[in-house]
């Protein structure tokens, strides 16, 4: 995000305070952000298409859970991979949110968009609103407390286990890892 005063990089963690409609960057160290474990999970997004049996087609995406963010955000790049450009252009509405970085630097918001999401393959869906960020694709989706409240997602911690997210006692598919590991794939092979 470029500004005449400062450059805000997308590698910084975004948190939003909707009381003041500002977004705060609370992790100013890329190394700390990349090594501190975060909760990631899967979310299913409807691309407004149906299959041959008139069933809604759901596409899987990864979100970062942020219980400190009041609003949820989605990158324009992820939207463009899911929806046709015409759909995006017709459905993005102006945003009332003024997003501001940690050093009071404005961050460009493309607007807001309402889309259908759910958190399990067989679960119910809801229309939810995301703030769209044009030049941000570090996680694709940052899940704030607005959507967490809509779905009544609960977060529980246990000293011996990773944090767990659930809806009505149904455990969500999540993982607890540093963001730097999010795109890595590992496989353990046992040879006899």
Describe the protein in words.
By secondary structure, the protein is mainly beta. Helices cover 14% and strands 40% of the residues. The protein is built from 4 helices and 12 strands, in the order ββαβββααβββαββββ. The strands form 3 sheets. Strands 3-4-8-5-7-6 form a 6-stranded mixed β-barrel. Strands 9-10-11 form a 3-stranded antiparallel β-sheet. A two-stranded antiparallel ribbon has the order 1-2. A hairpin with a 7-residue loop joins strand 6 and strand 7 (126-133). The longest helix has 7 residues, at 76-82. It is globular and about 55 Å long.
In short:
Helices cover 14% and strands 40% of the residues.
- Could you give the distance between the termini? 52 Å
Count of helical stretches: 4
Give the strand content: 35-45%
Strand count: 12
For the largest beta-sheet, the strand count, sense and barrel status come to: 6 strands, mixed, barrel
SSE class: mainly beta
Using only CA atoms, what is the Rg? 17 Å
Shape: globular
* Overall average residue pLDDT: 77
Order of helices and strands: EEHEEEHHEEEHEEEE
Looking across the biggest beta sheet, what order are the strands in? 3-4-8-5-7-6
Low-confidence segments, given as residue ranges, are 1-29
Q: Can you give the helix content as a percent range?
A: 10-25%
